[in-house]
Amino acid sequence: MRKLMLAAAAFGGAVLYEERRLRLGRELAARANRAAGLEPIRDFGAVKELSILPLIDYYAADPELATEAGVAYLIEADGQRILMDTGLNQKQAHPSPLVRNMQRLGIAPESLDMLFFSHGHLDHVGGRREEKRGEFSLSHGTVKLAAIPAYAPLALKPSSFNPGPKPEIVNGPRVLAPGIVSLGPQPRFLFGLGYTAEHSLAVNVAGKGLVLIIGCGHQTIEKIIERAQALFDEPIYAIVGGLHLPIRGGRVMLGPVNVQKIVGSDQLPWKGLSEKDVDAAIAAVRAAAPAVVALSAHDSSDWTLARFRAELGAVCRDLKVGQRITI
Length: 327
Fold this sequence. Notes:
By secondary structure, the chain is an alpha/beta fold. It is built from eight helices and 20 strands. It has a single domain (36-326), classed as 4-Layer Sandwich (Metallo-beta-lactamase, Chain A), CATH 3.60.15.10. Strands 8-6-4-3-2-1-20 form a seven-stranded mixed β-sheet. Strand 11 and strand 12 form a beta hairpin.
């Protein structure tokens, strides 16, 4: 009986600790968002052509291409090549799934002009080793990169495998190139993951509007759309990337436990993500009225993807490795 009482007290203490930690973390993230000091961005240019080629994600258009629960996208805007995130490389392989796919698709690392990291989680910076060290890598072996800028919402340095890039911290909304803008960090405090600063990319396509390219969407799509509408006069033409809605299924499981669902919210697990979050996301996207919606399966379930298709219809497109999305 005594052991049972002690176990119950320990569990209750742990719950109270996590509740307090989450409450304080939410307050910290809210203060950071309020202090962002947003000013509208005008006359930042536009690109004539834009394409997004998934290099790493959960599904592939070609069975010869590698897949994983991570993200890496090649963004080509008027000839400029931007690599957004560098995948998971869970086995710390060389060549990594990312590099193997780049080789198969004829993309030379030396041809990249910019790196853009949505946030510092392992499935976006090249693995757990990189996340722990505050680094990023394309592979666990030498990959030649030029001295190109690497933008991230936190301190992130290149690993010894790819030493060329020059990291810069993005502290707020920032024009990175004509027509290409970081929305600036939108932090959120997540259960198990803690304080998470994430930013998204906005590309203004002439005659169409903004294309929002998102890594994980920990900020929530509602907050991302709200930020874009506060910064720009241009309409939202497309939404591409992850929204972290692993409802009724997940890509990362620990036995029966859906890990992504547990760590995807700023609430305790039993109050965490639910079907209501999917409904709210769909409502926000519908209100923005984009012409194209392509959601990543790396952090959203098949049920969520099907729900978006059922509600939004023909605007939804597949997002698969090797299948280019041309705007």
